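Appendix B, example 12.
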Amino acid sequence: MSLQNISNSELISRMEKLVRTERKITHLILLHILEIDERKLYAEMGFDSMYAYLTRGLGYSESSAYRRLQSARLLKQVPAVAEKLEEGSLNLSQLTQVQKCLKEQSQNSGQLLSASATMRVLEKIENKNTFETEKVLAIEFDHPIQIHESIKPQKDESVRIEFTLSKEQMEALEQAKSLLSHICPEGTWSEVISYLAKAPEKTNRTT
C-alpha cells in the first residue's frame, strides 16, 4: 500500500482511526486470552501454558505475551479496564505493572485488593507516563524505599551504576539537565553527569 499520494489531513484521519481500532482489537484479544485460558484450550493444542501458546503458538515476543497475559488477568478482576484501554487512558504496560503489584501484595499479605480499590488505583495512573505510574504505584502499594549503590563493570569497559537519589537531589539534577540542554543536546543522564563531573576540572584550569 502506497500512502504517498494521500493528503495530510486524510493521512492523519486514517492514522487516528487505526489507533482507535488497534485499541479495540487489543481489548478483544485480552478477552479471547481469558476465555482460552479458562477453557485450557492451549493444552488441547499441545502447549503446557497460555504463555507458551502466546509465544510459540501465536508468535508473540516474550515481553508482549507477558503484558497481554497479565493485562487479561487484571481485566478479569476489573472489567471496567476495557473502556480505559479503548479510550487510551491506560495501556498494557500500566496494566501489567498494576497486576504485578497486586500479585506481590497477595503473596506478602495473603489479601487481594478489591475490584473497587484496584479501580481507584487505575484511575490515579490514567494518562501518566512510566515514571509517573511507578511513582503512584510505589505510594499506593507502600513499596519499601530502597537505598543502595551498585557499580557493575561491563565487557566493553563501560560501567553500569545504580543509586538512589532523594527528592531534592533529583530535582537539582533535573534542573542541571535543563540548564545544560544546549551543551548536552542528547540529554542523557550519563552525558549530564559526565559533564558535571568534569566541571571542577574546567574551573581549575581557568583559575
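The chain has a mean pLDDT of 90. The chain has ten helices and two strands.
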